[in-house]
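Good morning,

Attaching, inline, the backbone tokens for the sequence recovery test we're adding to the shared suite. The designed sequence is right after.
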């Protein structure tokens, strides 16, 4: 800048570690603040006085280490098999505490043996619905349990072509400084747990974050915190060859209408996919488990299945990249029949849908089966038949071919809503 007044920003120019310094005289501290002497002719051409720091080109960050072709192929193959046409997920990952509530509702004691026997009913029933169930999410206890004849549950379902998954989060905890909002714990030790779960047969995982709609929530802090927690979890899973299901659940509690739910859903999903990009997540090897866009449980205005479907698909089209293989909806307290009808309407929606749109239901696949069983061994076949009926219904809904029936099930029309639902 001979004969000119040097720009004020010149002395504040920084070159980050790993970037090549432009040639100039007086460079003393590569990688930190520079005290620039007279620039060479190359520097004069590169750093003209008219250019500001925002105009100086620097290299974009890279993913280290990048996934190999083989790793990407494994992850994408697992994800695509789970959401193959007409297939969805059975969420059997209820914690011991959640199972206590289910058992109490039918007057059954919550023992490890009864929990094992009940889940055996579901898993053996998959023989008749393996064309509709692509994956099953296990709780830690269930992953290591066996059938009456000693067959491990993992082997039982793998032999039917169903992929085992595992819930890896450790539950929600309060997010300080917010109006009752939460984040999810469990990142500590997750890498080691994922490595062990992979050895033990789990090929995908699930992590649930929870947000709620009120006049003041979700806050930006809650949205960003939960998005980053999900992204960190997804990164750890993929490094261990496990497909992550990311679940940013917006609770149905409240009086909000359909429009408000759609707006919040779009903001939450947009933040989530920005975080996944920042963490270098391989989207083709992930699945999304969101809420459907529905009005709050206490909303006085009623909406049709077609309106819910249009709002849901619109929100997804605005936020979820086409690279994602599938969207596996949670039931969110809907009755069994309502969850099937809404899923069918979503798949029948005339808007373009580049992902598989299917189910990852717990209560909406199990309510009638649980009621039919009621802790009685002689009712095993009846409970199995109820589960098969719901699995077939949702398999058809995932194709947009479900027709509601009067013989829907023992608890098909019963609302499954639980305020502030926790697993």
């Amino acid at each position: 800048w001979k004969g000119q007044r040097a720009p004020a920003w010149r002395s504040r120019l920084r070159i980050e570690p790993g970037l090549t310094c432009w040639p100039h005289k007086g460079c003393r501290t590569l990688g930190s603040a520079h005290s620039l002497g007279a620039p060479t002719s190359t520097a004069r051409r590169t750093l003209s006085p008219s250019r500001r720091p925002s105009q100086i080109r620097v290299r974009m960050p890279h993913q280290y280490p990048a996934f190999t072709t083989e790793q990407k192929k494994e992850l994408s193959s697992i994800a695509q098999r789970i959401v193959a046409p007409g297939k969805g997920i059975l969420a059997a990952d209820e914690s011991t505490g959640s199972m206590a509530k289910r058992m109490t509702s039918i007057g059954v004691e919550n023992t490890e043996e009864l929990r094992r026997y009940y889940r055996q009913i579901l898993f053996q029933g998959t023989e008749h619905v393996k064309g509709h169930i692509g994956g099953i999410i296990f709780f830690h206890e269930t992953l290591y349990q066996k059938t009456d004849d000693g067959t491990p549950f993992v082997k039982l379902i793998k032999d039917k072509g169903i992929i085992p998954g595992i819930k890896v989060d450790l539950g929600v905890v309060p997010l300080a400084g917010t109006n009752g909002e939460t984040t999810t714990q469990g990142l500590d030790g997750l890498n080691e747990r994922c490595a062990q779960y992979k050895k033990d047969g789990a090929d995908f995982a699930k992590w649930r974050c929870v947000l709620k709609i009120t006049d003041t929530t979700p806050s930006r802090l809650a949205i960003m915190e939960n998005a980053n927690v999900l992204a960190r979890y997804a990164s750890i899973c993929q490094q261990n060859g496990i497909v992550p299901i990311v679940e940013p659940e917006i609770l149905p509690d409240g009086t909000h209408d359909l429009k408000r739910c759609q707006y919040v859903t779009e903001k939450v999903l947009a933040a989530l996919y920005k975080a996944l990009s920042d963490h270098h997540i391989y989207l083709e090897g992930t699945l999304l488990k969101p809420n459907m866009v529905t009005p709050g449980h206490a909303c006085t205005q009623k909406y049709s299945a077609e309106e819910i479907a249009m709002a849901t698909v619109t929100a997804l089209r605005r936020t979820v990249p086409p690279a994602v293989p599938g969207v596996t909806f949670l039931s969110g307290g809907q009755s069994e029949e309502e969850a099937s009808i809404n899923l069918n309407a979503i798949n029948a929606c005339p808007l373009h849908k580049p992902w598989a749109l299917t189910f990852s239901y717990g209560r909406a696949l199990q309510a009638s089966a649980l009621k039919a069983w009621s802790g009685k061994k002689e009712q095993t076949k009846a409970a199995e038949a109820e589960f098969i009926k719901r699995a077939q219904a949702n398999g058809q809904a995932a194709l947009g071919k479900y027709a509601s029936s009067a013989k829907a099930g023992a608890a098909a029309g019963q609302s499954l809503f639980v305020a502030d639902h926790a697993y």
